[in-house]
Amino acid sequence: MSDAMPNPDAMSRSKAAEAAEDIGSNNSANPTLGEIIDTRFGRRSFLRGALATTAISAIPGYALLGEAAAQGASKSSFDFEEVPVGGDEKHHVAPGYDADILIRWGDPVLPGAPAFDPMKQTAAAQKMQFGYNNDFIGYLPLPGAANGSKHGLLCVNHEYTNEELMFPGLGGPQQHKKNMFAGMTKELAAVEMAAHGGAVIEVKSENGKWQVVPNSKYARRIDADTPMAITGPAAGHARMKTKADPDGRRVLGMLNNCAGGMTPWGTWLTCEENFNGYFWGKQDAHPEAAKLKRYGLPNGQYNWGVYFDRFDLAREHNEVNRFGWIVEIDPLDPASTPKKRTALGRFKREGAGGITNRDGRYVVYSGDDERFDYVYKFVTEGSVDTANRAANMDLLDKGTLYVAKYNADGTGEWLPLVHGQGSLTSDKGFASQADVLIDTRLAGDALGATKMDRPEDIDVNPRTGKVYLMLTNNSRRSAQQVDAANPRANNRFGHIIEMTPDGGDHASTRFGWNILVKGGNPADPKHEASFGTGTTGNGWFGMPDNGAFDARGRLWVATDGMSKKSAGRNDGLFAVETEGQLRGVSRGFFRVPEGAEMCGPCFTPDDETLFLAVQHPGEGDEEAGEGTFEKPATRWPDFRPDMPPRPSVLVVTKRGGGKIG
Ligand code: FEO
Ligand code: CA
Ligand code: CA
Prior knowledge:
globular; binds calcium ion; Neuraminidase; binds MU-OXO-diiron; nine-stranded antiparallel sheet
């Protein structure tokens, strides 16, 4: 990367996938709001305001004064002592808390799973063991448990794989860069496929100690070969049919499942993000080449298409249309078929923040994680039946998908992605609702949605109903492209937008919005960051990615992309005030070991337990030949010379008991 500052985008495989597309794939003519910003405050006064904020932040001692003020205000909703920033081989949690390993890559999930042997990995073993790169974590209290906050099911996404860290002898840099997959084999690709997907594990706390319940009847591994149903308006459409599935209703596996959500009826929504990276082959030969390009295809992050026809675009045109969806899974029934819910659209879906609207309809918010891509919501047609779980099981097959437009005056509109409405008509290339959904990005282009700075996770505060959108960064936004909702050029550190549905109605097509924080160091004018007064040197962050609310309605933000080099600190978990005088104040609670990203914050209903996911520990400087199986940046969490680093789920509890934070 040629940025003057170290570019945080190249930190992980998921990042690499996005960096490979460099300027994003959205070349539509939709205006960036920079073109209409003058309608609100004019660029000059807007910039003046930004500079003023920066100037205040730059006064020496500002952070310390702020800290004292925050303490004096005694209004902080958080009461923990911050973990100091930095970066080393270990994880660090705020004083007074324990952060213990719950389950690691390779640990048994299914009964009879063999012990993890990194030197002799097989797909058969991996299919029974915990997968790689845990991301989203959802917690479902076990029905009938004596205490639902101490005994439940964890639903965990396994987003992607790092061959160079997983397998001995492949060397560096990463297989998809320069190395041309020199060391890859069909057997290793099959292990990778088995390490993708997700896991359901039963967990229980006894005498203050959480453990995975062995041989649980709920235990499940889902991988890139698990049979899934395709449901909703695109199911059975000609573009969903393949040689292996002439009906277009059955697909094998889910890929690159990043963030997600849990529904009030106890299902797991898991989101396929960078699915493009798995499809191989010449784009020119494909009948839908232009549409593929809008989805960043072909990409070639993985070479599975060499071994398995369905991942080769030249040999199977339509398989790619069957990825990029939201998948609904019933964790209480390990024999149930996961469902790809096409009504919610197809893009690099990042998260599924949900809420039951006051009229009973369910609403799911999602981001499309790409530079200059869009924010979506889906409103069901039917209502949640709180008395009858079974009645909700296909609720997500019918409803309306919307894409967001952020106006410069702080209002916003949800534009319906409905065939026949607006420009979503046959003469514009949308012959049916199936086309609108398969080509969701193109439909968003056609409606003039707002191009955002990589929308990642999106979470709804269960107490206030306000919606929080993580925009992780966009180093490719130029000064001419800034707008009110994406106000920084070369946005290296990202920001968080707060959205308030009109009248508290999540089905409304209108909303208000404002910026909660702008990432980066508020004491460094070059960053043009903004946090609430009182945010310390340990509290600021950049690259917000996964978010979560605890039961008390407090926002926790996990980051992806900070390192000692890019930010003077490794990624971590931060607690952010959203209301009152301290709004925008952030505090550092946890930081990850070298090379890792922070994922999956998830609280039990009593807020006494926090589950965290540490993803891709050990990634290192590829140019220096580091970040490999033989030479990882850390051997966390085992620290054994014969064991590679292992992505793991941690369980955080307060020493002596009590609520987190
Ligand atoms: Fe998988 Fe956009 O993070
Ligand atoms: Ca993410
Ligand atoms: Ca979330």
